[in-house]
Design a protein that fits this description.
With about 160 residues, this protein is α+β, with helices and mostly antiparallel strands. It is built from five helices and four strands. It holds the Pfam family TadE.
Length: about 160
């Protein structure tokens, strides 16, 4: 049986069309997934900073990883780290308390969360490195920068 001429010209066209469209479709799909991860990360870090602030207002120190000479500020940072579901180190947060920035753990001070009755404003400035070049076009330097914060009043402790 002889194949008509118009069908012979169509052979392989689906493969060529797929080869042209597939990279674009996969790039868009991965971009949507990464955009979803950005929202997830923002919400997770918002939860973590809220839990850290809730812990800070109690004046407790039991979460400090050091067994002796436990410090309140290290305990609060540990609570944030525990609540961030592993994203704390990924987003490299810069911690600010009451508009004072603590860029590294060596800069933390023993009274950074105040005393009973004080208002505590805990803020994290976070940076997420993007993996998808499609989204990197919309964010400077391929980084998504966001801030999460919580404000609470210290309890009597």
């Amino acid at each position: 049986m002889k194949v008509p001429a118009f069908l012979r010209r169509q052979r392989g066209s689906a493969v060529v069309e797929m080869a042209i469209i597939a990279p674009i479709a996969f790039l868009l799909l991965i971009g949507v997934i990464e955009y979803s991860i950005l929202f997830y990360t923002t919400l997770t870090m918002q939860y973590a900073v809220r839990e850290g602030a809730r812990y800070a207002i109690t004046g407790r120190t039991d979460k400090d990883p050091a067994a002796s000479n436990q410090q309140r500020y290290l305990a609060v940072v540990q609570q944030i780290r525990n609540s961030s579901m592993g994203m704390f180190d990924t987003v490299n947060p810069v911690i600010s308390v009451n508009n004072t920035t603590y860029a590294s753990t060596s800069a933390y001070s023993a009274n950074m969360f105040g005393s009973p009755g004080d208002i505590v404003v805990l803020r994290l400035d976070c940076t997420w490195k993007l993996a998808t070049p499609l989204l990197a076009v919309f964010f400077p330097n391929g980084e998504y920068k966001f801030t999460v914060a919580a404000t609470m009043q210290n309890e009597a402790f």
